[in-house]
Structure formats: structure tokens, C-alpha cells
Amino acid sequence: MYHTPNYRNRGNSRWRDRLRGLLGMRVSRQLPDPGPRPHIGDYIAYRDLVMKIGEPVADELWDWLVFNRWRQVHPQRDRRRYRRLPSETFRLLARCAPTQRDAFVAQMLRQHKPAMTRMGPLK
User: What pLDDT sits at residue 8?
Assistant: First the structure.
């Protein structure tokens, strides 16, 4: 029977995880440093929302996104669960007035269903 290394120690890892939690060894993840402006086709995420960049990002818009905790994500390395936004969402956000952006993001948070799938390869 074929076994992968992940399945061999499944019981031990759960016990170890609980012990690490009880001893306070867990470290909450820090927000990653903002990188350079993303290119067309890259993905950015906020909390559990992810959206694809569909047009060039202006400096002012990227500064606002970084200030509001949006960060570029790399689908190949990311195992978190996200709610994927429709493809036209970034275009609508980019064309939104700067005073309206907070309301637009709040509407996105309310409107989209809970995350059901891992990000995985989205391309």
C-alpha cells in the first residue's frame, strides 16, 4: 500500500500542534512587507478576498491598497482559503473615486460568499 510522508505522522502532528498551542509557542503571522506594484495578471489579497489585476496599477491606487493591507499573493505557494472576486472588480475599484474606495471594499466583503476552496493555481 502506498503511503505518503504526510499520512504517516498525522496523529503525532495533531498532538504536537495542541502542545505547542498550550505552551504558547504559536506565533501569529505578520503582514508581509509590501512589494513592488503588481503587474497585469498578478493577484492581490485582503483578508480572505483575492482579486486579479486586470489593468496597470497607478501609484496612488497602489499606495492606498498597501495602506489598507492589500498584498500581492503568489498562488503556487499559498495554501490559504480565499474568496475569489469577479474579474471586473479591480477595474471598478481603480475607476472608483478615492473617497468611495472604502465603501466599495466594504460592499465586496458583505457581498461575496465564504471561502470554500484553496487558492491553488488560478491561472
Answer: 54
Grid coordinates representing 7?
499520512
Q: What are phi and psi of 108, to 5 degrees?
A: -60, -40
Residue 106, Cβ neighbours under 10 Å: how many?
10
How high is the mean pLDDT of the chain?
79
Could you say which DSSP state residue 113 is in? P
- Cell numbers for 64: 492606498
* Residue pair 39/64 in contact by the 8 Å Cβ criterion: no
d(CA 68, CA 58): 15
Predicted model pTM? 0.67
Q: Can you name the residues that pair with 73 across neighbouring β-strands?
A: 43
